[in-house]
Amino acid sequence: MIVIKGIAASPGIAIGRAYVVEDEDIVVERVEIPRDKIKEEVRRFKTAQKATHRDLDAAEIKVLKVLGKHHAKLIDAHRLILKDSLITHDVPKRITEEGVNAEFALSEALEQVNRQFERMEDEFFRERRHDLFDVGKRLLLHLMKRQKRSLSDIDEECILISRNLLPSDTMGLKETKIIGFATDLGGKTSHTAILAQSLEITAVVGLSDVSRRVKTGDTVILDGEQGLVIINPGPETVAKYEKVQQRSVAEERSLETLKGLPTVTLDGRAFKLEANLDSPEELKSVVALEVDGVGLFRTEYLFLNRTEAPSEEEQVKAYSAAVKALGDREVIIRTADIGGDRLSTLGIEGPKNESNPFMGLRGVRLFLRHLDLFKTQLRAILRASLKGKVRVMIPMVSAVGEVLAARRLLEQARAELAAEGVVFKEDLELGIMVEIPSTAILLDAFLPHVDFVSIGTNDLIQYTLAVDRINENVTHLYDPYHPAVITLLDSIVRAAHAKGKWVGVCGEMTSDPRAVPLLVGLGVDAMSISPRMFLRVKQTIRGLKHESMKRLVVKALACAESDEVRRLLEQNP
Ligand code: PEP
Ligand code: MG
Hints:
The chain has about 575 residues and is of the alpha/beta class. It is about 45% helix and about 15% strand.
């Protein structure tokens, strides 16, 4: 039995027969092209480009059918690569200037970019090179007139093992009997990992040499919780993992009984329990959870992976669908928080090449530079509000002036719609995310201008502790239990309640059952949770006593270190 440790990319346990796909190495030879044949060679390359565009169109239809519109945007990202000057300009230039065949010119260009990608420190961007190779490989196969290997030919239940899996390969997995995959390459934020989670396929990546160590037919266990691959496990290990599998299925099933029950502590304190919505594809499952509302509708998905901003109509449609699906329950629509790691491809000024994008032009700061984008979104939200119970929320607020500017723009949007005779909801409430320490510290000054606040713990922790939330070198310092964080949370809740304002929390801290007792003790009004953890958190809250948690928070506020807070939480289950 061999155990290899990698990166847990998509949760779950999969046990089955391995199917190893060999990496089809494409050998590209350098061929000199005579001067009089250069134009023809460039034409041959352009024909391959067109064929690749057709491939992407076909892939888009398939993805739309299986995964929906959100994921189909990945294809847009591939189209952008295909239209990039690296492909459209550099390759023909190399063919012409160096007098070489198209395959060679293309692979040289790709290699040069690969070297640049490898030097990038940001994992998210480093991972984007797989998208580039996906497109490059399609182009090469067209030039060589070969068919791309199709995983849909695998018709047995198995665990796929390969050196790498491209996003386009991953999209097709839903149609196969593949129950999980393990790869040598890959990181947690790659498109492949993101897709595996959406498809609910267990995945472990970044295993360095798993594709050489496993043979087709071997029994393997994929542990998508711990990031492990176990090759040829003994019967005892298989039995142990089968038990874990059964337990988690049984647990999930028992949680179902909590649907529709109120979220109330043992001593009778009720909490509003809402879900975060990141894309329209999640809408159905969020509604099925019988949530009290959507406490954070992240609208960035509408703006990313595309070159033009979404129109007002497109936005009205997207927001109305969510608002209608939630019926009489509230939906807090957050205006787009573009910037940070959510880089825009819209071609607008900034945030490009910022050396510190999380401290840069992000959220409301970016939108106040692009008032057209901001106003269009506010108009769309005002119009969608007619369909149900909507509130609007502004992200990344650090100064009162930003709230006043957002309010003025909302007034302008209202006046415009009224003048145009377009119907909309008159009394839309406006709130802010409290996720920057300056806003938390000076909340009293913001409160007269807002109807509610929602704490974004993801960013609040990052900015309070000076820990980049996506930098793997400092993950050990990213700490929701830090007494400074708890002190700040406490002061936000107190300040807001003293002025009779509603306080929600929508960061990932709400999705961690170990941290939720603190939020209960702090007395927040609502928590908005990632759908996967919704019922589990509800179960946790229903087992707590509010009065005991209040006492726990008093003790936590007197701690000097997070380990002390952790110990308190362990002692007060
Ligand atoms: C947060 O910062 O906690 C939050 C919910 O916003 P996001 O994760 O989208 O930055
Ligand atoms: Mg945030």
